[in-house]
């Protein structure tokens, strides 16, 4: 090799190294791209699978008849034998307490549905309603718990089997409750929302927030007078129902009725001592709604 050949080899060697390095980098990049695409595909497929797993079957995918039939089998219901009200909604919203009140029982009495915080309902339990023949009140587990997640609650508790659903709600209407109402509407199932702790809401508004005292001091007497004031009860009821109305409209549920009641007042009004009722909310309207649903169903 002459001088020129030596010089050429010295100059071109780095170029070859750079080219080789570029080829290696390109190969690695291509491989990394393939791996990344494979990972992305795997993630997408996993997400689709998970979406299918949490999607309530039947009603969501357009098979209401099959879903209703499956729910009826789940609860061993004989069609036309009785009218069933299903009491659904989030845990600790007052389902069991309301159901007990309608049946004329206090929470601690024999035969009452379990309503204590430490004894939340985990099973579907049926109770007769003495007010009307062949009417069953069904106490359902709370929605949105680990045992009964919201996504599959409608199917897993067999809500489609009941002639009417009563959805207990908190002070605000949440996505879980509106989703249940939409599913009920999709199978033409009568449904209503119920806020059952209005006596507690009014007491909290007066004692904790100072509402309805109109500048008076927070004495026991003034607080008690404010809680017993029927005008205050009507005002708070309208305030809560107006807030619900906005949420219902957003979700296409404007036609679903809302009843603001006190489970305690319901019990006193129906079975105990009406003179002890401090304030009346919409207890009478809820009971009339329930009776109307039964009568309409039986007249078909």
Automatic annotation (TrEMBL):
Question: Could you name the domain of life of the organism this protein comes from?
Answer: Eukaryota
The residue ranges crossing the membrane are none
A GO MF annotation of the entry reads: GTP binding
- GO cellular component assignments: membrane
Ranges for domain IRG-type G come to 81-283
Q: Which PANTHER family match?
A: INTERFERON-INDUCIBLE GTPASE FAMILY MEMBER (PTHR14143), IRG-TYPE G DOMAIN-CONTAINING PROTEIN (PTHR14143:SF1)
Query: Which family, according to the similarity comment?
Result: Belongs to the TRAFAC class dynamin-like GTPase superfamily. IRG family.
What is the protein's given name? IRG-type G domain-containing protein
């Amino acid at each position: 090799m002459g001088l020129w050949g030596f010089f050429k080899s010295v100059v071109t060697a780095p170029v070859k190294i750079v080219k080789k390095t570029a080829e290696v980098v390109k190969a690695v990049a291509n491989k990394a791209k393939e791996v990344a695409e494979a990972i992305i595909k795997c993630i997408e497929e996993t997400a689709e699978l998970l979406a299918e797993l949490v999607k309530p079957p039947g009603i969501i995918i357009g098979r209401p008849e099959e879903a209703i039939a499956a729910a009826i089998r789940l609860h061993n219901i004989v069609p036309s034998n009785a009218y069933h009200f299903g009491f659904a909604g989030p845990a600790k919203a007052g389902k069991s307490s309301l159901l007990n009140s309608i049946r004329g029982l206090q929470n601690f009495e024999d035969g009452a549905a379990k309503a204590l915080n430490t004894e939340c309902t985990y099973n579907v339990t049926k109770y007769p309603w003495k007010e009307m023949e062949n009417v069953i009140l069904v106490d359902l587990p709370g929605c949105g718990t680990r045992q009964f997640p919201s996504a599959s609650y409608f199917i897993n508790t067999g809500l489609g089997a009941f002639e009417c659903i009563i959805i207990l709600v908190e002070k605000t209407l949440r996505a879980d409750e509106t989703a249940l109402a939409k599913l009920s509407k999709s199978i033409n199932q009568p449904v209503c929302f119920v806020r059952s702790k209005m006596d507690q809401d009014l007491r909290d508004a007066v004692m904790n927030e100072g509402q309805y005292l109109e500048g008076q001091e927070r004495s026991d007497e003034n607080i008690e007078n404010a809680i017993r004031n029927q005008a205050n009860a009507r005002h708070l009821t309208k305030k809560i129902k107006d807030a619900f109305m906005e949420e219902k409209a957003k979700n296409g549920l404007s036609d679903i009725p809302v009843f603001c009641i006190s489970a305690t007042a319901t019990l006193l009004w129906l079975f105990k001592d009406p003179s002890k009722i401090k304030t009346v909310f919409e207890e009478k309207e809820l009971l009339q709604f329930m009776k109307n649903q039964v009568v309409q169903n039986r007249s078909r």
